[in-house]
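Note on ligand handling. Small-molecule inputs were canonicalized before submission; formal charges were left as drawn, and no protonation-state enumeration was performed. Where a ligand contained multiple stereocentres, the stereochemistry in the source SMILES was retained. For flavin mononucleotide, this procedure yielded the string shown in the input block below.
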Amino acid sequence: MYKLFFRLVFKRMDPEQAHYAAFRWIRLAARIPVLRTFAAAALAPRYKELRTEALGLRMHGPFGLAAGFDKNAVAIDGMAMLGFDHIEIGTVTGEPQPGNPKKRLFRLVADRALINRMGFNNEGSAAVAARLAARNPVFRTTVGVNIGKTKVVPEAEAAADYVKSTERLAAHADYLVVNVSSPNTPGLRNLQATESLRPLLTAVREAADRTVTTRRVPLLVKIAPDLADEDVDAVADLAVELGLDGIIATNTTIAREGLGLKSGPELLGETGGLSGAPLKARSLEVLSRLYARVGDRITLVGVGGIENAEDAWQRILAGATLVQGYSAFIYEGPFYARAIHKGLAARLATSPYATLAEAVGAETRKKAAL
Ligand SMILES: Cc1cc2nc3c(=O)[nH]c(=O)nc-3n(C[C@H](O)[C@H](O)[C@H](O)COP(=O)(O)O)c2cc1C
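Structure output:
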């Protein structure tokens, strides 16, 4: 049904307009009690065996919504209604900003992929913090807050901008993510170099501890798939050294070569981050590499090209405690999260593992033992 609807309606619309249209329907449905109860019962069934503990938090399951879909925290209940067990809002920047000029989102239907150069269009940390503070949740869900650098802030002053966002948002975050991996803010990804990343993560950690004294807000970093393997290792080592809680792997890629892309040059020539199916292999590779390096010391979140339950299961076996998706939701529609949870429960039942936690990293551990 959705695929037909996608072909007849969404595919003919500008991708960003289609996003806002879908967003409006989701938010509307979540505001109508009968509708949201019915939708949640159909789309967000709970599986006891998928209950997940990660980052000191209890979740209904391991699968959540990746950052970028709900940048301003306006649809948390709507997305929970659709079965996402954690919702990562943002990226939120210190100051509000419009993002890059349109057109800035492209569908690569033949590749089940997207290219975006949104450029962190968002209402800024003060407005998003106010919205989260006023929120009256309908569904109990985990809310991650992903923060990034305001475009006009020079790279040398990046830490102060992240600290500003942290001071405003940490109290409302079940976990906080430092995003240094989006390709659409000039210079942002340079912050992944350990010389820049160490002081940045230290400053954010201190700001979170200063602001929230009643609990320790888990802190994660989100990395690019385009890092060289040695740089992935360096981030992993730094994360352990700093006592970071998690690493999210990965953001979108700037690569176009070697991904077997079928779309034409008019699309592949668009600047921006590529996401969806073509990202699957590299995201999985980065995740396994991270797990081989950090083991169970740090929580890993797998994201990039997760289209179905098998993809999510492979990430768990590679080392992810949590998994996230974005692009495939556009192509698969409202049953996306439900299909993943259902398929994960089925896989776990026929696997040699008694619990999901036991399955985390099993494949990578096996390979390391060979
Ligand atoms: C349109 C779009 C906007 C995005 N915006 C953000 C963002 O603001 N912050 C972020 O950390 N990641 C952002 N992402 C990256 C996703 O969170 C995710 O890491 C990436 O798309 C890979 O997952 P996927 O293949 O399931 O889409 C965005 C992705 C898309 C497609």
